[in-house]
Structures are given as structure tokens and as C-alpha cells.
């Protein structure tokens, strides 16, 4: 019987591990990348949730940093927004965002970064098709959190929201 070894996150392949300061800088860097990507937004006339670059950033951060650091980067991102920093789409921040229609997607970022990071640690990021599949699954997790929450804010049922 053969045991399977987890692969190192991509960032550890490129750079050797340096300690807790190194981890903190990577986590804050992932959070910053997500915040900058959130400012790339395309508003949709039929939904209060815009298309943003932050989804791609979440998946990329999870892949590059691994499951734990990726999820911690997203928690840092949410914490920055909760403190009122303008890190969310449209330069928004504060508690009101966590009560609005996009909150489910934001919480989904943590789970998605963890999932994609876990898959990357298992070598899914080493081939284009498996990396694309990992990101597809991560995107599905974001929708799994976001769509039910969004349906609370839109008229109609969850099935009508899914039709959007």
C-alpha cells in the first residue's frame, strides 16, 4: 500500500519558508491582491452583485498560498472590510456590506480559498486541466454560499435567482 504525499503550495516551491513573518506577509499580500481585484467591477443591471476580479483573486490566492494561508488571507480581507477599509467592490467597506446581498459570496471566499488550496496541495495545480477543475469547484463553493443569501434580497425564490 502506498501513501500519498501532499505537494507543497506553489509559493513554497518558489521561495523557501522563512517563519511567521513570512506567513503574515503572504497572508496580507493575498488579502491586498483580493482587495485590488475587487476594484475591477462590472455592474449588472439585473443583479445587485457585480462581476468582479476578486473571485479570480480568491482562487489564485488559494492555489498559490495553500489551504490554510489562503483561507487566512480571505479572513484577513473580510476583517479589513469589517473594520471599514474600502476593500470590497466599489470601494465599499464596513458592517453594512455584511448585511447586504453580497455577504454570502464574501463568506464563500474563505471556503473556496481553503478548497482550492487543499486541491493544490494534492497536486491539482500541476496540470492545466486539473487546475481549471479545482478553480471550477472553488467557484462553485462561492456560489453555494452566495446564491442562497442573495435570494433573500431579490424577489422570488432561490430557483428564480439561479435562473439569473
TrEMBL record:
The keyword Transmembrane helix applies. The chain crosses the membrane at residues 20-42, 48-65, 72-89, 95-116, 128-150. GO terms for molecular function: biotin transmembrane transporter activity. Keywords: Membrane, Transmembrane, Transmembrane helix. InterPro entries: BioY. The keyword Transmembrane helix applies. GO terms for cellular component: plasma membrane. Belongs to the BioY family. This is Biotin transport system substrate-specific component. It comes from Candidatus Hakubella thermalkaliphila.
Amino acid at each position: 500500500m502506498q501513501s500519498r504525499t501532499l505537494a507543497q503550495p506553489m509559493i513554497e516551491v518558489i521561495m523557501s519558508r522563512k517563519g511567521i513573518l513570512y506567513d503574515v506577509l503572504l497572508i496580507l499580500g493575498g488579502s491586498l491582491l483580493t482587495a485590488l481585484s475587487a476594484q475591477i467591477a462590472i455592474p449588472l443591471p439585473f443583479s445587485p452583485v457585480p462581476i468582479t476580479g476578486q473571485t479570480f483573486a480568491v482562487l489564485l490566492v488559494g492555489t498559490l498560498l495553500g489551504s490554510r494561508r489562503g483561507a487566512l488571507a480571505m479572513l484577513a480581507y473580510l476583517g479589513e472590510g469589517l473594520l471599514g477599509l474600502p476593500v470590497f467592490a466599489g470601494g465599499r467597506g464596513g458592517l453594512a456590506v455584511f448585511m447586504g446581498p453580497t455577504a454570502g459570496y464574501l463568506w464563500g471566499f474563505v471556503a473556496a480559498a481553503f478548497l482550492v488550496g487543499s486541491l493544490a496541495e494534492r497536486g491539482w495545480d500541476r496540470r492545466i486541466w486539473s487546475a481549471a477543475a479545482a478553480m471550477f469547484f472553488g467557484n462553485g463553493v462561492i456560489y453555494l454560499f452566495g446564491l442562497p443569501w442573495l435570494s433573500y434580497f431579490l424577489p422570488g425564490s432561490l430557483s428564480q435567482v439561479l435562473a439569473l
